[in-house]
Write a structure and sequence with these properties.
Length: about 150
């Protein structure tokens, strides 16, 4: 098993367990809420963790088939997985702080702090490049191998 595959499998396990644990958190919020609902980012953290766990498995499959150099597959996997983790982390922080129902709505709140718009926009641009770029490299490497 390559390092890229190991990273993907490890991330899949961590993301899946995060999804399960945040599911408990979500249920607890729902059970104690007057309207039987959880804060938006508790729900988002739960669902995104589960979805990213399966995305990590898919990237692992791509990495396993990829004909690209191992260092490139590893960098691509680490880039995509790292930003999956940062996204989940952001959702967890907003879930704990209960500071927003939309992290992209201005003003950008983080607890009692307001973040400058360029921070959010810069993060989102780098996130898109890392997630889409890393996935593209692994997927393209796999497709080149099978065709």
């Amino acid at each position: 098993m390559t390092l890229a595959e190991k990273l993907c499998l490890t991330a899949a396990f961590i993301f899946f367990m995060t999804g399960l644990v945040t599911g408990i958190w979500k249920y607890r919020c729902m059970a104690t809420s007057s309207n039987a609902s959880a804060p938006r980012y508790v729900d988002v953290a739960h669902r995104s963790s589960l979805m990213y766990s399966f995305a990590a498995l898919l990237l692992g499959w791509f990495a396993g088939y990829s004909m690209l150099p191992a260092w490139l597959n590893t960098a691509a996997a680490a880039s995509a997985l790292g930003f999956f983790a940062l996204a989940i982390g952001t959702y967890l922080v907003h879930g704990v702080l209960r500071d927003t129902s939309n992290q992209l709505r201005k003003p950008h709140r983080l607890g009692s702090t307001t973040l400058p718009p360029w921070v959010i926009h810069s993060f989102m641009i780098v996130l898109v490049v890392a997630e889409v770029g890393g996935s593209l490299v692994l997927g393209a490497g796999a497709l080149m191998a099978i065709w």
